[in-house]
Amino acid sequence: MTTLKVNGHEHQIDAEPDTPLLYVLRDDLKLNAAKFGCGLGQCGACTVIVDGKAVLSCVTPLMLLEGKQVTTLEGLGTVSEPAPIQRAFMEEQSAQCGYCIAGMMMRAQALLQRNPKASDEQIRTELAPHLCRCGTHMRILRAVRRAARLMDTAELLPADQRSAP
Amino acid sequence: MTRSGIIGGVIAALAIGGAGAAFAVAWRPAIAAIDPPAPQSFPADLVKHGRELAAIGNCNDCHTVREAKNFAGGLPVPTPFGTIFSSNITPDADTGIGRWSEAAFARAMRSGVDREGRHLYPTFPYDHFTNVSDEDDRALYAYLMTREAVHAPARENQLAFPLNQRVVVAGWKLLFLHRGTYQPNPAKSAEWNRGAYLVEGLAHCGACHTPRNALGAERASASFAGGDVDNWQAYALNAQSPAPVPWEAGALYAYLHRGWHPDHGTARGPMAEVVSNLAQVPPSDVRAIAIYMAEVLGPPPPDRRREAVLAEATPGPAAQTEAQGAAIYAAACATCHESGRPPPYGGINLGLSTAISGPDPRNLANIVLSGVRPLEGERSPIMPGFADSMSDAQIAQLLNYLRSRFGRQPAWSDIEKAVADARRTETAALHTSAGARHAPADPAQRDKP
Question: pTM for the full model?
Answer without folding.
Answer: 0.87
